[in-house]
């Protein structure tokens, strides 16, 4: 089997079975591509995750794209992203079209909350909520327009992050051996974890209060 096809099938299986957020997805990636398939070692995987955490964009999708790039070049990166993203994008696009139709084509707060809940409930990247929103906003113009809306917003939300990885990965491969660069990245990751922890604490306090 060609590397790009193998990459697509591996990520498609993950896209159909990987529930949870980025932390859960990255854990599944490590088990699949470090422990099971041995496409990379722990050090290279950790470096890849660290870089994607530092960059803006959907972390788990960027990590998957980077793994695909390392495995089979651009074809592998696109295969990894498509396999991991397509199942939830299609499911949420259909849900957005259906729910907007039930609501008479109106996209209000309840429909947005429903889309977020669905994105949490299906496997794959949470950013595919954009597929739901794109389909819902265009559903009044028919199924074809809904599909186009879902595809457009899905591409719009994922493409910048993937392009950033594509540009940054070669430079990071050269810089990761530099102690100063690694230290700066470690510090940035700690700051990000602190911000996320503070945001979670604030959400819990609002719910309990």
**Strand portion:** under 5%
In whole angstroms, how far apart are the ends?
56 Å
Low-confidence stretches: none
Overall shape: globular
Number of strands: 0
Averaged pLDDT, please?
87
Main pleated-sheet profile = none
| Total count of helical runs of at least 4 residues | 8
> How many structural domains does the protein architecture include?
2
Which structural category do the helix and sheet elements fall into? Answer: mainly alpha
SSE pattern, N- to C-terminal: HHHHHHHH
Helix amount, in percent? Answer: over 70%
Radius of gyration: 18 Å
SSE inventory with pairings:
Layout: H1 3-17, H2 22-36, H3 42-54, H4 59-102, H5 109-121, H6 129-138, H7 143-175, H8 179-208
Descriptive overview:
With 209 residues, the protein is mainly alpha-helical. It has two domains: 3-177, no CATH class; 180-209. Helix content is 83%, strand content 0%. The protein has eight helices and no strands. The longest helix is centred in the middle third of the chain and has 44 residues, at 59-102. The protein is globular and about 55 Å long. The model has no long low-confidence stretch (mean pLDDT 87).
């Amino acid at each position: 089997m060609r590397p790009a096809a193998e990459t697509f099938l591996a990520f498609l299986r993950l896209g159909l079975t990987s529930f949870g957020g980025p932390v859960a997805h990255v854990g599944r990636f490590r088990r699949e591509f470090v422990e099971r398939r041995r496409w990379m070692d722990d050090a290279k995987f950790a470096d890849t995750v660290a870089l994607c955490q530092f960059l803006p964009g959907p972390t788990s999708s960027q990590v998957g794209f980077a793994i695909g790039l390392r495995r089979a070049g651009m074809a592998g990166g696109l295969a990894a992203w498509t396999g991991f993203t397509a199942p939830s994008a299609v499911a949420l696009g259909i849900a957005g079209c259906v729910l907007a139709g039930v609501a008479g084509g109106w996209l209000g707060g309840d429909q947005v909350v429903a889309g977020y809940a669905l994105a949490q409930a299906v496997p794959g990247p949470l950013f595919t909520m954009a597929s739901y929103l794109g389909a819902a906003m265009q559903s009044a113009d028919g199924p074809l327009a809904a599909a186009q809306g879902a595809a457009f917003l899905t591409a719009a939300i994922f493409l910048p992050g993937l392009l950033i990885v594509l540009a940054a990965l070669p430079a990071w491969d050269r810089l990761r051996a530099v102690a100063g660069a690694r230290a700066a990245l470690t510090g940035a990751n700690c700051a990000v974890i602190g911000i996320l922890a503070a945001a979670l604490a604030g959400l819990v306090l609002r719910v309990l209060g």
